[in-house]
């Protein structure tokens, strides 16, 4: 890291990538609290449309550096453990389609599938559906070897627009769009890949969540530097309509992820005492090791309290439909398709 982190960032953008407005302000600045890699990252918010985006944005080289060791490599086992515990959430996502189709879908592409955990769980809901997965990481190959997806495509989704055109009855993007460099192009690709009348299912963190304001930089879904766009639900609805979709359902409370307070304690603990053994840090000293152990020991009762608060918060979110994330299901109109909605960006 002798060259510094500036080489991982593109020039600062002066307008909103969603609506083009120049009315921008800083929403939050936060370091990499997930892995403790160097750098501080800025999320700005558009005053006109509410879109929140990373500015300056990571370059492709930066994405490779910060993603490395998280989903694969050093962090792959931990990520797999977390994703493997979300079976109920995966099934609820899959069941969202039930009221809107009279027959099981024959083909489903899960974009940003990771190691294929969703596809594997969704088979319990749709046992006769062919599930394929797409991801930029190596995990999609492992998903195919395990049989959790029929076919795994590795790469950027827009690269497959022509190859997969019109092939799928369902495309899902669960906590995927926020990671992408250009979410509007991703939606264009989804419209191209879907057959007319096909369904697009999306789940995203909600930047309008009350917890985002309450917890500030310790709100886990900011997820810097990996999340590049956080999209208000109204913006996504409009973008889908522009691309020939009809929004069928929107869920906020049921999409809530019960980790606001626990995540805040974890991020604060990491900020105060990063892992002294992370390979990209200077050699650990006895003092740093002692500090890390002391902070982690002191945090244990905070984690316990946070778990209780999250349980209460989850109950409230489910009752008021005001969670920290939202799901949207849309149908591609039979005579619809991608329009020129994004050409003025």
Q: Output the number of helix runs.
A: 10
Major β-sheet, in short? 7 strands, mixed
Helix content: 25-40%
What gross morphology would you assign?
globular
Order of helices and strands: EEEHHHEHEHEEHEHEHEHHE
Trace the largest sheet across and list its strands: 6-5-4-7-8-11-10
Percentage of residues in DSSP E strands: 15-25%
| Rg computed from alpha carbons, rounded to a whole number of angstroms | 20 Å
Unreliable runs, pLDDT <50, ≥5 residues? Answer: 78-82, 337-345
- Secondary structure: number of strands: 11
Mean pLDDT across every amino acid position: 90
Intertermini distance? 34 Å
Write a brief structural summary.
A hairpin with a 5-residue loop joins strand 2 (40-46) and strand 3.
Q: Can you walk through the features of this model?
A:
- The protein has 345 residues and is an alpha/beta fold.
- The chain contains ten helices and eleven strands.
- A seven-stranded mixed beta sheet has the order 6-5-4-7-8-11-10, with helices on both faces.
- Strand 1 (24-31) and strand 2 (40-46) form a beta hairpin.
